[in-house]
Amino acid sequence: MAPNQLQPPRGTHDLIGEDFARHQHVIDTARRIARLYGFAEWATPIFEDTRVFSRTLGDTSDVVTKEMYTFEDRGGESVTLRPEGTAGVCRAFVSNGLTQGNLPRKVFYAGPMFRYERPQKGRQRQFHQIGIEVLGAAEPLADAEVIACGWHIQRELGIEEGTVLEVNTLGDAPSRDAYRAALVAYFSAHREALSAESQVRLEKNPMRILDSKEAQDRALVADAPTIFAQLTDEARVFFETVCAHLERLGVPYRVNPRIVRGLDYYSHTAFEFVTERLGAQGTVMAGGRYNGLVEAMGGPPTPSVGWAAGIERVAMLLEAVGGAPAAPRPVAVIPVGDAAEAAALDVLQALRSAGVVAEIAYKGNLKRRMERANKISARYAVILGDAELAEGRVQLRDLDSGTQESVLAAALPARFV
């Protein structure tokens, strides 16, 4: 590499060729399936007022304390490149006056997110997510339908083999209060064995210790109490109903009591689709119920549930099962002579207007243009010269079989429809 050759910033990557095809296939498939479930697509700004994230993700979360791209703009306002999509959707829900009437709102989104962390396989500083949110639905059926939509997207992409849905409940407020007390009692008895970070979490947010990746913490977490002993009757029935709906919808799952969300506005269902095919980055899609998030944005109490999935990770799974469907092979229009080149433009426009992918080489004789047709993997070549112009016809060559026939120029588009 030349010393002055510019490269993409660390933790970012260019999407070109097959990489882009897989990326776009994930979005297109998710968008299509989400539409079947009644989700409408929203697009929120890539940067927001910093309070959108600091208020909702929590001052002690790793995202806020270590990973956000936050800066002061020229007007002196603190803005942050979005590290995730849910907070922006909830902000848009409140600031656009959508909190009353016509609920629930079912939202699909797709786009780039930004976190300053150590780049590794499946994790970049600029990454991309798809996600869905149901805003304004308190019923367990909403949780089940959100999960079923995610499962449907994975099936449609062909990546569901080896991907497992794990579900848990975080209970209601009384359940979490009791569970928090049980965790404090348990971990306090082992305080000296905890990592320094988990000792801080013990004072501020003990449930987040269950998320620790430190080996010394994991050993203690293995024997920590679960929330099931602390659930109220209402919370237990809610979780059992979600599971019953999943079974009726044909979505396989297993209960994992170690899945948690550390912030107070999370409640009831928490879930992750996980796989062993991505190494350490095993979470494909994750979400849960967040009944207090809209309220934290200044809106009214609004029960909500959703999930997000990293497109890069999904695309890695997609690559393993054969990648995205092949793009349609183009038709190469090949004029022979100056007069034919002008007429070739009419042929190009007629094909494209009929929805046919068509290309023309910008220069070269017949041989050079045929070489170009082969390089772009054209399926057919449309050849026209003086003789064809005089008769209003073209030569249509099948580049796979080598056969060729004379076709009326006006009838050419119909051959591909």
Automatic annotation (TrEMBL):
It is found in: Cytoplasm. Signal peptide: none annotated. L-histidine binds at E84, G85, T86, R115, Q129, E133, R261, Y265, Y266. Pfam families: HGTP_anticodon, tRNA-synt_His. Residues 10-335 form the Aminoacyl-transfer RNA synthetases class-II family profile domain. Keywords: Aminoacyl-tRNA synthetase, ATP-binding, Cytoplasm, Ligase, Nucleotide-binding, Protein biosynthesis. CDD domains: HisRS-like_core, HisRS_anticodon. GO terms for biological process: histidyl-tRNA aminoacylation. InterPro entries: aa-tRNA-synth_II (IPR006195), aa-tRNA-synth_II/BPL/LPL (IPR045864), Anticodon-bd (IPR004154), Anticodon-bd_dom_sf (IPR036621), His-tRNA-ligase (IPR015807), HisRS-like_core (IPR041715), HisRS/HisZ (IPR004516), HisRS_anticodon (IPR033656). Its EC number is 6.1.1.21. GO terms for molecular function: ATP binding; histidine-tRNA ligase activity. SUPFAM superfamilies: Class II aaRS ABD-related, Class II aaRS and biotin synthetases. It catalyses: tRNA(His) + L-histidine + ATP = L-histidyl-tRNA(His) + AMP + diphosphate + H(+). GO terms for cellular component: cytoplasm. Its main location: cytoplasm. Belongs to the class-II aminoacyl-tRNA synthetase family. Homodimer. This is Histidine--tRNA ligase. The lineage of its organism: Bacteria, Pseudomonadati, Pseudomonadota, Alphaproteobacteria, Acetobacterales.
